[in-house]
Structure formats: structure tokens, C-alpha cells
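Quality-control log, excerpt.
Job 1 of 2 completed; input and output follow.
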Amino acid sequence: MFLEITIRRNPELVREAFKLHRQGLIESNTYVIDLDAVRENARLIKDSAEKHGIKLYFITKQFGRNPILAKTISEVGIEKAVAVDIDEARVLYRNGIKIGHLGHLVQIPTSAIKEALAMKPEVITCFDVDKIKQINEVAKEMGVVQNILLRVVGDQDYFYPGQEGGIKLEDLENTAKKIKTLTHVKIVGVTSFPCFLYNENSHRIEPTENTLTVKKAANLLREIGFEITQINGPSSTCVSSIPLLEKMGFTHGEPGHAFTGTTPLHAHSFEPEKPAIVYVSEVSHIFEDRAYVLGGGLYRRARVQKAYVPSKELLLDVDDIPPEFIDYYIPIKKNKNRVNVGDTVIFAFRTQIFVTRAKLAVIGGLQKGEPNLLGIFNPLGDQIVI
């Protein structure tokens, strides 16, 4: 999905990934990330947000909760992170990253609420009153008041399968009044997901129906006396979409894929953010007209289409990936080209590293001509080499 644009816009990354694999410094099934490009992308995103009056929380799950990348982004000036679940919050907090938004997609488990509140998140998103009551009781024991966002749902809203949930718009007023009686939580905003998505027909990032629901919810809460300071519009936040956040009246965005230049928009147009990630593996075996590449790092929505064999400068097609597929191998079509067992193969596709079994190598100094392998990590943010 992103291979050809990465070869064109960040050839240094492709060359260095190939070199590291040939030298045995990284193994197959390893993502390689260009820290210099991530830093510059973060600066561009921050500058755009400041220009348009949008506040940001950064997402790390896509690049495996990596502490080096998280610290770099925070040093640029996007200081607080999204933790989509409690495990991500733990990794970030342990590495000194401030937690801005917790519970973004995954609600806090009951037994972990006290631990979560001790991290002092700026806001916690809640899907229903029962979870809010649990948070209120723990906050009361700890002597704190926790700011919360309500995830709101309209009849025509879109959710990814298995991610449904929230307070229905028609129930919002009564629900909010019940929450207002709780002494140790405070409603400060509303959110949903996804609020913005890439439209393959218009080739633009556009608002979903969810954005209208969120705006209606914010207005309703203000009308009944709540001070709403955050209208959070996550999904596809990048330099090009931030003006749309402002136009739609949102206050907060949550960039993630934009740091590595891998939102769907980046695959189809020349965007300010530079491609910053590739996936490296090698040919395991040949069978008929297929070269089978060692896998482990694919993601169901990767839509991987092309593979690059640098030693032969071959750009080859990847077989269609069926739903029952387990990525022990990634089959690529040789098309009568000579491909050998052990050849390095490079891919670039949309990923969520934290749900893979891949490794992640972080390279610094690449854009200055001084590449340096800073560390190799597992997909959950723990350093395993260097």
C-alpha cells in the first residue's frame, strides 16, 4: 500500500533496512522505523495543530508503544499520549510519558481503575454509567476528582466491528444528570470513533456521521449546564485533516499513523508527512511460482499489495490474503523472475504493530547520513536488544 511511495520519498530507509538485514543486525519479521522522519512529522503535525487551535494526544499502538518514539514525539511538543488500553498506559507511564487520554477504545478493567487513576490521566473516556460509577468510587477513596469524556452514539453512526458501545444520544440528558450527582467524576467532554475517515472515491479525509453526533452531544450538555471543554475527534488526524477538525468545531485530535506517514491519505497523495516505516523479512522457500516470505508482522487491514527485493530491484505482487490466513508466510508472485531463498524482502503497509508478533528496530540519524541502530523492541514496547 505504501511501498512505492516509500521507495520514492524515503529511499534511505529502504537501503538501511536492507543493509541491516544483510549484515545480520536485524532479523526477518522486523519493522524498521526512521526516527528522524518521525520527529519531523511530529513537528509538522504540532505546527499545524497550533495554527488551527487544536490540542493533540499522540497514539503509540500503531508503532508498538515504542518508548523511543513516544519520548521523541513528546519532546517535539505533543506532550501527552493516548492509551487505548491499560496495558499501553502501563508501558507509557513506566517510560515517563504523560497520559492524556485513557480508555480511548478499551474500557479500564475494574481491578485496574486505582492504578489508572494514579497515572493522573487528563481524561478518561467512558462508555456507560456503570463504569463511571466504578471510577467515581475509586476516585472518592483516593480523594481525587477525575475528568471524563462520554462516548456518544447516534442511530446512523459507524463503528468498526466489535468496537460498538457508548451512551445513546436520546439517553444522554438523563444519563448526564445521573452522572452529575456523582461527587468524584466530572464530565468535561465528548468523543466517538472514528470521527474522520479517508474516502476512496473523493481521495480526501472526510467527517463521518459520528462527528455530527458528537457535536449534538456537546451542544446538549452545554444547554443543560455542563462546561464542555473537550470535543475529541480521533481517527486520521494529520497535517491535512487538522483544518477540518477546526472547521467542524472540534478541540482535540489524536495523530498516530501520521507520525509514520501511513494514513490511507498518505498512500494516495503527496502529503507533508514523510513515510517512516518498512517491514523487513526474507524468502523462506520457493514453491511453483511463489516465493514464500517469513511472516509474523501482518495486520488484517494491512492491504499489502507489493513486495520489494532490493538485491534484484524487483517489485513483485503479493497474493491476496484470505480471512482464514495466518501469516506464517507472505506469498509473493515471482512472475518468472529469479528469487532465491534468503533474499531480503521489504514491504510497506498500514499496520498495528501491537497486535503482531514482529520486532521493531529504531534507526536514528538516517536523514543526516549517520544511521545508528538505537534499539530493537518487541511489539509491546519492551526493549530486547541494545
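Job 2 of 2 completed; input and output follow.
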Amino acid sequence: MKRFSSVAVICAVASLVAVFGSGAASASGGGTIAIGGLTSLTSTFTPWGIQARDGMQFAVNQIDAAGGVKGKGGGRKLQLFVADDTSSASGGIAAWKQLVQSDHVVSVGGVIDSDVAVATAPMSEKAKIPMFLTKAGTSSILTLKSRYTFRTCLPAAAEVAAPILQYAKAKGLTSIGAIVADYAWGYSIKSSLEATFATDPQIHLNIQDAPVTATSFTPYLQALQNDHVQMIIATGHPPGSGPILAQSLQLGMNVPVVGAYTPFSLVEGAAGKAAFNTWTDFKCEAVNSSGFQSLAAKFLQAFPKDGFMEDDALSGYAYVQIMAKAIAAVGTDTAKISAYIHAHTFNIPGYTFPLKWTAWGEIADARIALDQITAGPAPSGDNTAGTWWISQLSLSSPLKPYKP
């Protein structure tokens, strides 16, 4: 079982007192303003991390090309430092220390892995360093005392199961299967599914546990097939989403597969045309909006190898834009930056909802799109990975923020 060491987290947090004391972390000196990217680049969540990194860099490039951060930022340019968390708690702690203690960043963003977020959020809170989560949806990351940690795309896991149940009821389904991974996000999704589906005993739920590193899902799928499931929830196993779809089709299951903010390019690459009009997923980007399509075309001009602007890239872009606005208004004092962010609403092109937060950092009014891969064609310039495109099937009502 993939778990983080609470002793390691406590020791890491304690070591920060000697570095920062009890006040705000020191900001960048003269010249450029250093901001950090803490994300996954060489391990399980690499496809997510690359998108988040490139979205952050894209925003930095835009801001610097326009003369840097204005206002109290004094026309200073931004510099992005990125550290690889290796999709592990220990790797996240080491990467966080590099960014904060060596690179002297005033913020950290782009976090994908839930184990990384659970390990580093207490460190950011202690050091008073704003930290932005791109995915990392496990419910235990934030506490009611959190003031420097912000979700930017994926709501808490406890908020995810209700829309899935609503979808199943709308389709008249009676038997649902799920495959979850053995890490913090998977555990949170499993708990959420069990609690939510218990409210409707007419729908049978079969949950299969799989390693987060699994690539062959045949045994788990066969167990679901024997149970005659009518839908497969891959929400709790993001890395396996594409293979789960492809392997379910190989078994002749031919049932919808619902993911969890998995890169569409990853699923399409694994399943090909079989994903068209079958694979559906939750996203925080409004793919059919002019704001998204315009931004995505510019993004892909800068990063054509990324293929499609996933919501990981959009979230990374939002993080940097929000930090630039906060620094322009209040300077580089991190306590003032956090207070400014909490007090304002940010409208980012391409988002399905305005970004604003509860006092403890949950998204206040998240509205999540349910999207499906189609054959396309894609709008001009918005997909360098093929001609496929995305259709928005529905948009949720504002979700009630999870309260720890």
C-alpha cells in the first residue's frame, strides 16, 4: 500500500521553524520574482505534470512579454522554478524544500498527486507559502485551519461521487462497477462512493482495488463483468483510465467508462477510436467556449507537443495569473498575497466557474463539466494530436464545498 510517513512530515514541518521562524516566508529580492511549480514529471502522473508545468510557463511567458508584474510588483518579471515530486510523499517533501529553501519561491503550484499534497500542505501552511493544487483531490489535504492552500480545478473527493450517482440514476442503471487505486485519492473516492451509493440501495456497487502502478486490469474487469455492471467508474484510478477503457472493450463489456480529470490525450492515445462517444470525464474547462478555444490555440502554438490543452495546463495557467494579480496589488509578502486571494474572485478564460474560495481553501462554487471524446473535427489550432474533439454533455450546478 502506497502511504506517506507522518513522522517524515512532522520532522519536515519542524525544520521549517528554523528557516522561517513563525512569520511569512521571505520573498524574492530585487529583479525577478520566483514562483514554484511542484508537480510530477518522471513517474505515475507525468502526463498530468507536463501539462501543469507548461501551463504555468505559458502564463509566465505571457506576463513577462507584457513587461512583467505591474503595480506593487514594480514591473518585475516572473521566473518559474519547477521541481519533480516523483509522485511520492518523500519526493514531494524534497522538491518542496528545494523550491522554498533554495529557490526562494513565493508560491508553489501545479500539485497533482494526493500523497504529495497531504505531505506538503502542512509545510506550506507552517511557512505561510501559498500552494495551489491542480488535482490532488483527497479530502484530507485541507483542514478548517488551512489558509495558504487552494484547490484550483479538482474539488475534494467527497464532492465527486454525488454527480456520478446522479448520472447513474438518470440513465436508470442498477449495477455499477468501480476500480480504485491504492493511494490517497483512490481511498477517498472509495469512501465517497460507498457513502453516497449507500443512500440508494436499488443500485448495486462493486469496487475493485488495484495498485496505482497497475497496467493490466483484466482480473478486476472480469470480476465486474461477472457482476454484470452497466457502467465502470475509473474515477479512483486516474493513471489506469485509458487501459481500463481499452481492456474493458477487449473483454467485450461495451459499457460506459467514467474517468476523473484524466488527460483526454492519454485516453485517446491508449484506446484510439474506441474512446469516441464512449469515454466521458469530469473537467473544469469549458471546451466549447471562445475563451478556452482562443487560449488553447495560443498555448499549442507555444507547446505543440502537448497535443491538447488539458485542464491541468489551464489550472497551472490560472495559478500564475492569480499570483501575478495578487503581487501587483499587495507586493510579495506571502501573508498579504493569501489574504488578497481569499478576498477576491478570479475569472480565468476557459474555466467552467469563477475561482473563489472558502476560508479553508476549497473551491466555493465549483461547476464541473461532464465531457465526452468525439471524432471531431477539432476547431482550427486547438488539437495538434489529431482531429478528435470534446463534446460537453452537461455542466453541474455549483457544488457544496466539502467542510473537513
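Post-run check on job 2. Confidence is low (pLDDT under 50) at residues 1-29.
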